[in-house]
Known about the structure:
mainly beta, two-stranded antiparallel ribbon, 0% helix, elongated
Amino acid sequence: MRKKIDPMSGNVSGGKASHxxxxxxxxxxxxxxxxxxxxxxxxxxxxxxxxxxxFPVERVYGSRRDPARDDALRYAVRVGGRTKAVxxxxxxxxxxxxxxxxx
Length: 103
């Protein structure tokens, strides 16, 4: 493969990106979330899966905007003693990522 030289910067390029591509997000599962408000903040309280299972949220660690998920708000929560994530879209719907190895 022939190397290319950028005349503006003088950088040498092999034609490939020097950084790996952003990984694709895992498939999303739409869920319902019961919420409560603390000091004006909307926080998840119970996560309801489509199959009817309910998971109480033991703790909310925080939230942040997630650009990989179209700027959805990602909440880091503790459910069943494990740290998980649940997202709230701009339209108010909620989702979780499908875990690897799960049907």
